[in-house]
Design a protein that fits this description.
alpha/beta; TIM Barrel; 6-stranded parallel beta sheet; 3-stranded parallel beta sheet; 11 helices; binds 3-phosphoglyceric acid
Length: 212
C-alpha cells in the first residue's frame, strides 16, 4: 500500500536521486548503494535508459526500494509501474499524472512549492509531497512557514533540489519531513564512469551523519 512504501522511505531517511545514462551501470550502482547501507533509489526518467535500469535493479536486487522520478506523463506512470517501480515522484503537480498514478496504484509524491500547490495536492488526498527545489526556494525557513497552515492535515515532505551532505540532516530534524534526497550521493558523472568507490564514500558519509 502507499502508506507502507512511504513508511519505508521514512525509515530509510535518505534517497539517492540519480540520472543514469547507461543501463549497464544500473547493477553496479545498486550494489554500491546497498553495500553502503542505502536501500532506496529514485531513477529519474530523464534518460531513455532509466526504465530499463529500473527493471535491471528490481530483478537483481528485489530488496531495493526503487522509485521513478521526473514522471511527467501518463505513459511514464504506466512504464514505471510496469518496470517494477514502487513509488514515483515529479518536480511539479500535473493532475493527469496524479490521476494515472492513482489508477495504477503507484504511490506518488507530486512536487509542490507553494500553498496553492499544497492545496491542489490535498484535493487529490496526496499527503506525501516532494518539496522542490528546496534550497533555492529558501530551504527549511520557507518550508516551515509555507506548510504551517496545513500541518493539521498530516502532510509530510520529501525535500529535493540543492540538498547535500551538509544540510540534509537539518531537513530531517523537522517533523514534517519524512525523507530527503538528492544527486549528491551518486553524481551523474560518477555513475557514467563507474566510480563506485566515490559513490560508496559519499553514501557512507551520509549514513555516518545520520547516526551522529
Ligand atoms: C530532482 O530531480 O529532485 C533533482 O534533480 C535533485 O536535485 P539535486 O540534483 O539538486 O540534488
Amino acid at each position: 500500500t502507499p502508506e507502507n512504501v512511504f513508511k519505508e522511505l521514512e525509515s530509510e531517511r535518505v534517497v539517492a536521486t540519480v540520472v543514469i545514462d547507461d543501463k549497464d551501470n544500473a547493477a553496479g550502482l545498486a550494489e554500491t548503494l546497498l553495500e553502503a547501507g542505502m536501500n532506496s533509489i529514485e531513477l529519474t526518467l530523464r534518460t531513455d535508459e532509466a526504465i530499463e535500469a529500473i527493471k535491471v535493479i528490481k530483478n537483481k536486487y528485489p530488496q531495493m526500494l526503487v522509485g521513478a522520478g521526473t514522471v511527467l506523463t501518463r505513459e511514464q506512470v504506466r512504464q514505471a509501474a510496469d518496470a517494477g517501480a514502487e513509488f514515483a515522484v515529479s518536480p511539479g503537480l500535473n493532475p493527469e499524472v496524479v490521476e494515472e498514478a492513482m489508477k495504477a496504484g503507484l504511490p506518488f509524491a507530486p512536487g509542490v512549492c507553494t500553498p496553492s500547490d499544497v492545496e491542489q495536492a490535498l484535493s487529490y488526498n496526496c499527503k506525501h509531497l516532494k518539496f522542490f527545489p528546496a534550497e533555492p526556494l529558501g530551504g527549511i525557513k520557507y518550508l516551515k512557514s509555507m506548510s504551517a497552515p496545513y500541518r493539521h492535515t498530516g502532510i509530510s515532505f520529501f525535500p529535493l533540489g540543492g540538498i547535500n551532505a551538509d544540510n540534509f540532516t537539518d531537513y530531517l530534524k523537522q517533523d514534517y519531513v519524512f525523507a530527503a534526497g538528492g544527486s549528491w550521493l551518486a553524481p551523474r558523472e560518477a555513475i557514467s564512469k563507474g566510480e563506485w568507490k566515490l559513490i560508496s564514500d559519499l553514501c557512507k558519509d551520509a549514513k555516518n551523519r545520520l547516526e551522529n
